Amino acid sequence: MLKRFAALALSIATPAFAQDAPQTVPVVLETTMGTITVALETQRAPITAGNFLRYVDEGRMDGTVFYRAMHLDWEPRPNGLIQGGTQFDPARILPPIAHEPTSVTGLTHARGALSMARHDPGSATGDFSILLQAQPSMDAGPNNPDPLGYAVFGTVVEGMDVVEAIHAAPRDPDKGEGWMKGEMLAEPVVIVRARRAQP
């Protein structure tokens, strides 16, 4: 009787525990340097993750590139980020989306975080970054360089070695403008295909 009660309690408790985990959608980025699998935060960052999923589902991310590798001389190393996406290609980009700050979503710029690239808040379209290490200064906060921060919408679950390899690829010292000069990859890494992971 005691065993049956314990089994019943476990069967009731397990689904409830599973429902506590935020919902995510896995997406595979097949690049010319390897595969990166990410989990998109469709529950905690529904606008931003939903936007990225639309780019994936409509094939707008296929054939785009990782074009930038920002290096930071901070420990732990390697440090910085890689950036890729549609680069304002009029044939690919969708309308800008509303900004979802980390102060609202509860997400943070941790190692492996996916974060939307933007100019002003509410201007993000189809470009994104992947962080090599935690960058709390990119979160929303009154003491950060940009108090509204950037929008985190997912995290790498497999393939950080590929992210690091892209980050380590040669950069062209003459490419890029302004403070991004010297951060552009000499040979951009192609995102051959972006797709939802098969269940």
Structural commentary:
Mean pLDDT is 91; it is low at 1-18. The chain has 199 residues and is of the alpha+beta class. Strands 1-2-7-5-6-4-3-8 form an eight-stranded antiparallel beta barrel. It has one domain (22-196): Cyclophilin-like (Cyclophilin), CATH 2.40.100. The chain contains four helices and eight strands. Keywords: Isomerase, Rotamase, Signal.
Characteristic key phrases:
8 strands; alpha+beta; Cyclophilin; E_coli_cyclophilin_A-like; 8-stranded antiparallel beta barrel; disordered N terminus
* Rg from Cα: 19 Å
Query: CATH class, please?
Result: Mainly Beta
Q: How confident overall, as mean pLDDT? A: 91
Structural domain tally: 1
H and E string: HEEHEEHEEEHE
* Unreliable spans: 1-18
What oligomeric state do the depicted chains represent? single chain
Which structural class is indicated by helix and strand composition?
Answer: alpha+beta
- How much helix is in the residues? 10-25%
Count of helical stretches: 4
EC number: 5.2.1.8
GO molecular function, one term: peptidyl-prolyl cis-trans isomerase activity
Signal peptide: 1-18
Pfam families: Pro_isomerase
